[in-house]
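Methods: example folding runs. The two proteins below were folded one after another, and each record is reproduced exactly as written to the output file, sequence line first and structure-token line second.
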Amino acid sequence: MEKETKLTFGVQHGLTEGDVLDVLTTAIEGGIGYWCCLDNTDPDWIEAGKQWKEEHNDIPCYCDTAYQVMKNGKAFKLIDEEDETVYEITLEKFLQGCMKFTQELGKDIHRSIRESEFDANDADMIIQYAAMGEVIYG
């Protein structure tokens, strides 16, 4: 009997800057507040907020500042309300969280956002995957 050859392939999923901001907004304003809070006293956070304001001539929301921190190659920090563990979310970790979410749930984040099928639970899971590598809460 001939041995069958298995073919494997990967599918690339793209996220726009708007998608990243949508995920962060949904997470910060509705998805993650029950288990963590943002550390908005960190110097990288403060600098990113100033930078956003200068570049956009607008006062940044939390999601804008979080995105700017990651865009600057830094990490924004989340503090676990239960045990005070500090999680640092870099752009790389955020994208890993998105990839894990896609692999585990089979959802295309970009398409889900465009088709209004993305919610606070989805955003929460992405942030948990980014922070802890798995979904712990929820």
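Second run, written to the same file directly after the first:
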Amino acid sequence: MRIQDPRRGEAAASAAAAIVVQIPAHLKHLVAPIQKLVATLDERTKQLRRDGSSVDYAAIERQLAEQAAAIESAANLCALEAVAVPAERIEVRGDLYTRVGAGLGTYRTMTGPVGLHRDIFRRVGERNGKTVDIISLRTGALGDGWLPHTAQTMAHYLQLGTSREAVQAARQVGRLPYSRASFERVPHLVGALWLEHHADIEDELIRDFVIPEGATSISVSLDRASVPMEEVVQRPRGRPRKKAPKRHVACVFHMAYCGTVTIHDKKGRALHTLRRGQMPYCDPQDLCDMLANDVLRLREKKANLPITLLADGAPEMWNLLEANFPECVFGRVHRRIDFWHVIEKLAAAAKAIGKDDASRRAMVWQWRRLLRRRTDAAATILTELLACRREQEEPNVAGSRPIHEAITYLQNNAERMCYAGAIRKGLPIGSGNVEATCKTLVGLRMKRCGSRWHNDTGNHVIHLRALALSDRWDDAMARLFATQRTSVRRRAA
């Protein structure tokens, strides 16, 4: 194949230089799209050299991208033909399969579907059994021919936003020209596959995890966030009205669990956070088991990392944390109520005690400094609140008694409020990482206007999103699709 390369100048006008590119015969599918791209580019460059008028370069970019995508599709076709080794009988995982026919197969790539003829095999001795093809076995394709990189990219789009947004984003970048239904179906295939293999893969990921330089402590946090769930409700009695829906459903909010394992430096700042989530109807013990396994593996790499448990004052969170991080296994474990939850309670009490805004701000500022500097700050503040002697006569405004609530909060959690000692040791005192996880993992993705979730599909999205937010996506997907690839051996007929 010859590609003409016109050059400027008088010499180029008389005799154009030429570059000869040799394409092997088995890659013949590349010839036509490459020639088309070269011809288009040659014509475009001649037009651009004529004058200095403005150029709609966005149109040129789109045209070149479409023709480059055609070259990529042709390259995929050549590669897939090489994957489809011709054979009459093959061995897959110790079982023999025999060729039962051939047909046109469609495989979905980043640039669109690619069709080619391939052989179909069925297990020897099985009548009307499931058929397989060599391409899907060797590449680990999902469903009806979704190739690994295509499937995981679509899953990444869906964990970022809705299927409608995924289609629009794909159209803008000129990749993944598939329907909205495909963006709703294929990522859930990836999610279901992840839930099937995630325990083993996550153990491998944490074993290979490199602890950041400067790490001095680990914190573990739990929290909850509401998720809109779709529930079937009982049909009302009597004759249904005209055009009534066949299924009566309601959107009900339930609490999902979020958990984090964060590595901190000597000043308590976060270096890296591993984030996890669990849908409402799942057992939170599974989430805690994963968090505990992460901490155990990290302590194997660096044994002297102190552990801090962080949560708000909810007894359920502390029951789960303390049951899954016993000191007989993890050694001494520090327990802290989130500092900012304490300040929030005290600020509400100060609002009820203070006479004006200036006195209220001064009171909160004083308590905040006290908590950060003195180990007996919680007892001191509690004594001060009790001395006000206003909790008995405090009016119940809109069902709230802020002074009484602050006193109760301090009495129940005083032993978990030694912030001065934690600051001196460089340990974290705030659960901001899990609070941010609740917002980014659940709030931004799961609580869109009008959205409602089923437990299974929601679990797919929340786990995939947790991988992306933990910066583990590429490693996790590489290991996941490695479980789908299968070696194929040719056997004599």
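Comment on the second run: Residues 1-8, 10-15 have pLDDT under 50 and may be disordered.
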